[in-house]
């Protein structure tokens, strides 16, 4: 079962449309060293981050443990229900919401890829209900058609695309810019999934801003563990601003556990709890 996530972004401003400003660094171009083999050079250039396929799979499972009480994140493409959090329908692998704009973006992308799909006819209604919890124009068949669309590989790919574009890739970029490792990048990702990146006080950017008043990220010379603890403190504060998010176990008995163990690379095996349920990745 999904737990409520993302704060309503102001004016539909999600992270996909207002990316965090990342530093740009000029790099000097050096003549290639003939002694360095191309494969070795490629390996050195590709430092492991949360975007490493194996690490990304772990991230998807941990988020699913909180959002769906299951490690089987791929079973959630078909998921859809109104969980009563004021965001209309919540659906899919990341909890796209009819009231927060990201479900609309998803169906628009799907329709660009596959015109005439089973959800295309709902685009006018999705535009109308954006910013509200209304089902106007969606009921009674939207949930049935969503489940039908989830059997289409193109719709599953569209969900992956929007998850990465709006949430995963920007959080990894910001994590790398802040100098944090795989765990830190995951901590950012989970925060963006729940809170979005609007302008409200509990959005990702403002959680990070709150943390900056207490600590510095490694990119500014700070200690990574101290920075991530400050970020998680700010995250807990943000979660407690809304009753639907007030259970902070996804931080307290999951992310804090990894951090206390010094597992900054999110190496397996992993053991954690969310909402009292125990999970393990070997």
Tell me about this structure:
45% of the residues lie in helices and 6% in strands. By secondary structure, the protein is mostly helical. The strands form two sheets. Strands 1-2-3 form a three-stranded antiparallel beta sheet, covered by helices on one side. A two-stranded antiparallel ribbon has the order 4-5. The radius of gyration is 19 Å and the shape is globular. Aids in the defense against invading fungal pathogens by degrading their cell wall chitosan. This is Chitosanase. It catalyses: Endohydrolysis of beta-(1->4)-linkages between D-glucosamine residues in a partly acetylated chitosan.
**Beta strand count:** 5
Shape: globular
Quaternary organisation: single chain
- Please give the largest β-sheet: 3 strands, antiparallel
**What strand order characterises the main sheet?**
1-2-3
What is the typical, i.e. mean, pLDDT? 86
Order of helices and strands: HHEEEHHHHHHHHEE
Q: What is the rounded Rg?
A: 19 Å
Query: Which range best describes the helical content: under 10%, 10-25%, 25-40%, 40-55%, 55-70% or over 70%?
Result: 40-55%
Q: Alpha-carbon distance between the termini?
A: 23 Å
Q: Given the helix and strand composition, which structural class is it?
A: mainly alpha
């Amino acid at each position: 079962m999904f737990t409520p996530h993302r704060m309503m972004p102001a004016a539909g401003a999600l992270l996909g449309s207002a990316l965090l400003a990342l530093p740009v660094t000029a790099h000097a171009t050096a003549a290639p060293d003939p002694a360095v083999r191309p494969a070795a050079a490629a390996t050195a250039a590709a430092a492991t981050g949360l975007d490493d396929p194996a690490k990304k799979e772990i991230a998807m499972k941990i988020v699913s443990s909180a959002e769906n009480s299951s490690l089987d994140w791929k079973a959630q493409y078909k998921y859809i229900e109104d969980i009563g959090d004021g965001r209309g329908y919540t659906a899919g692998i990341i909890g796209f919401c009819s009231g927060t704009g990201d479900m609309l973006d998803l169906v628009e992308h799907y329709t660009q890829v596959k015109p005439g799909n089973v959800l295309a006819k709902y685009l006018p209604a999705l535009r109308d209900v954006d910013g509200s919890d209304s089902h106007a124009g969606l009921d009674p068949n939207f949930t049935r058609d969503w489940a039908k669309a989830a059997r289409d590989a193109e719709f599953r790919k569209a969900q992956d695309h929007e998850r990465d574009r709006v949430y995963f890739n920007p959080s990894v970029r910001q994590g790398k810019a802040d100098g944090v490792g795989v765990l830190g990048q995951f901590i950012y990702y989970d925060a963006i999934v729940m809170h979005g990146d609007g302008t409200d006080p509990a959005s990702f950017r403002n959680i990070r801003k709150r943390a900056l008043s207490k600590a510095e990220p490694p990119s500014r010379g700070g200690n990574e563990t101290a920075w991530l603890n400050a970020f998680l403190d700010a995250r807990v504060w943000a979660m407690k601003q809304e009753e639907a998010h007030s259970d902070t176990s996804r931080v307290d008995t999951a992310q804090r556990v990894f951090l206390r163990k010094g597992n900054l690379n999110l190496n397996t095996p992993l053991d954690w709890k969310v909402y009292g349920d125990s999970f393990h990745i070997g």
